[in-house]
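In response to reviewer comment 3 from the previous cycle, which asked for concrete evidence that the modeling workflow produces usable outputs, we include below a single protein chain processed end to end. The sequence was submitted unchanged, and the resulting structure tokens are shown without manual editing.
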Amino acid sequence: MSQPVSQSRPLPGGGVIRPITRWGTPVMHRELSDVTSFDDDHETLVRDMVATMYAAKGVGLAANQVGVDLKVFVFDCPDDNENQVTGVVCNPVLLLPEGRDRNLEDEDEGCLSLPGAFTSCARPDQSHVTGLDHHGEPVSFIGDGLLARCLQHETDHLFGTVFGDRLPERARKKLYRQHQELSANYPDDWPVTILADEALIQR
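The workflow returned the following structure tokens.
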């Protein structure tokens, strides 16, 4: 999976911050509906998702994380070469290496829908996502490092999988305990309301 020199696509601005939906809400745990309309309402959703992702200081956000049942995610994430890659993907198809090309990387992972909690999660160190942008035009993103993890994490969301589903039971329980210990820092409408600077919250 060789990366293009530049694969970023601009993210739309001017959105409104929405509350982030938490794990346990039904829309977080089922496959979402395909995007079939690229109208003004869809543009508004994507703009709001971008604004919400930045307010929460995340590198990606899926539609069900703002309570919407549509297969679309946005991201702004560095690859292994510290190139910042941005984009919108609707109806993604995820391609992962197989056989001898498949190399798992066990790194810390977190989720804006379980804020404050991080733990190791093994994922392939490369990934390739194809789909449509918010205008209905074809897009393709190839990732390594954190970008590979982000593309997998966000695509998972659209098919009803949270990264805790990929963990052993003991690690998953520890993750929930971490979240509970810090839950007072994240009100129900976070990141509309922010009570603490994320940089001051120790993992």
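DSSP finds three helices and seven strands in the chain. We consider this sufficient to address the reviewer's concern, and the full set will be provided in the supplementary archive.
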